[in-house]
Amino acid sequence: xxxxxxxxxxxxxxxxxxxxxxxxxxxxxxxxxxxxxxxxxxxxxxxxxxxxxxxxxxxxxxxxxxxxxxxxxxxxxxxxxxxxxxxxxxxxxxxxxxxxxxxxxxxxxxxxxxxxxxxxxxxxxxxxxxxxxxxxxxxxxxxxxxxxxxxxxxxxxxxxxxxxxxxxxxxxxxxxxxxxxxxxxxxxxxxxxxxxxxxxxxxxxxxxxxxxxxxxxxxxxxxxxxxxxxxxxxxxxxxx
Length: 240
Fold this sequence. Notes:
This protein is α/β, with parallel strands linked by helices. The protein has helices at about 15-25, 40-50, 65-75, 100-125, 150-170, 190, 205-215; strands at about 5-10, 30-35, 55, 80-85, 130-135, 175-180, 225-230. Strands 3-2-1-4-5-6-7 form a 7-stranded parallel sheet, with helices on both faces.
């Protein structure tokens, strides 16, 4: 895909890899609708990278709001080419300590939100004469279960299944589907989810974004449907 002048949607765009995805796409000439709940942060990103980044205050767990925004933004004359389902969160703890509210919040954001937006964007991509691409940002937690992240595991395993089915549904409509499984990335996720903080050996958000751009720019009939990204040495260099 040639990214210049393509229309992209990025969820969770206010920070972390969502912000980096948006910056890289704009630098390639794309128009990017950045969705997040924190409008003030989105506006700061727009000030930084320009008006090709369009802030959209959105809670992806509310399907009516998604439908209203999609219907008012896109039409047969203005169609999206790229959807990056990046928004996600995690709460860590033993299964008997995990609250119902935390479980439901993860399910609603990491799975339901992806479905709510994807189901409204796919029909528009199907009528787009250009090739289109959907990215679902999972995690290595979607490949391997570990103690104290059972809820997060469940959502990311579910996202992998959803993505594989979606890729098989859409491949003959000229719509690629790629699932990314990153390991630990140096973002605020690790400052909030488990309190462990970040360190220099984690993946860097800009490198993850570069990888996404590389996949987007592959030839139209070339599909990378799954890719795992890990730090070669994941250990904190300050740990003795």
